[in-house]
Amino acid sequence: MKKVPELVAAAQTIEDDQKRLEDLAHALHKTKLQNEKHIARAQRELTEALEQQDALATSLRALGAAMANMQERQQAAVTALAARAHEIQTRQARLGELMLGFAALGAKAAELLQAIAESLDAADQSAALVSAREHIEPIVEEATALAKTAREEDFTDVAHEADVLKQKFQQIRAQLGAAAKTTVNGA
């Protein structure tokens, strides 16, 4: 069975107490004051109505306490939301920084690939291949560092993309190394 919320229970108690007070007031109003017996009965009903008024006041104080408790719960929820909103904002900003770093790395990688393609048309193929391999190393190192940082900060998507870029450039470096050996052996 579901527990009735404190605020609902307090409001229901007030409603019940108010109804009882109204019933007592109505009954007292109908009591005839014609003889001693009726007057004594009216006096008892009046006492009971005043006691009911005290019970209603107590119920109203309980409602006030329930509302204060509800306000505390609301404040706790709002505080938790504000903390989470700050965390989201901080994480979003950090993700943006990492993505900008990845974009800059991607731009460097694209420029390097273009430079490698142009240098391979050079007359001295062996020197061009060695130079290209040397220029790949900073890209691999930067991608490795970015992947490590992203992984440590639990940005798995960025870490994965940086790892993929690192692996591609490691493959290109290996292919350039094999081509350099072939060029040297073929010469």
List keywords for this structure.
187 residues; mainly alpha; 4 helices; 90% helix; rod-shaped
Short description:
With 187 residues, the protein is mainly α. It is built from 4 helices and no strands. Helix 2 packs antiparallel against helix 3 (125-152) and helix 3 (125-152) packs antiparallel against helix 4 (156-186).
Tell me about this structure.
With 187 residues, the chain is mainly alpha-helical. It contains 4 helices and no strands. The chain has one domain. α1 (6-30) packs antiparallel against α2 (36-119), α2 (36-119) packs parallel to α4 and α3 packs antiparallel against α4. The longest helix has 84 residues, at 36-119. The termini are far apart.
Q: Estimate the global geometry from the Cα principal axes.
A: rod-shaped
Count of separate DSSP helical elements: 4
Helix content: over 70%
Q: Distance between the terminal alpha carbons, to the nearest Å?
A: 88 Å
**Which residues sit in consecutive blocks of at least 5 with pLDDT less than 50?**
none
Number of structurally distinct domains: 1
**SSE sequence, one letter per element:** HHHH
Number of strands: 0
Report the portion of residues in β strands: under 5%
Q: What number is the mean pLDDT?
A: 90
Radius of gyration: 41 Å
Classification by helices and strands: mainly alpha
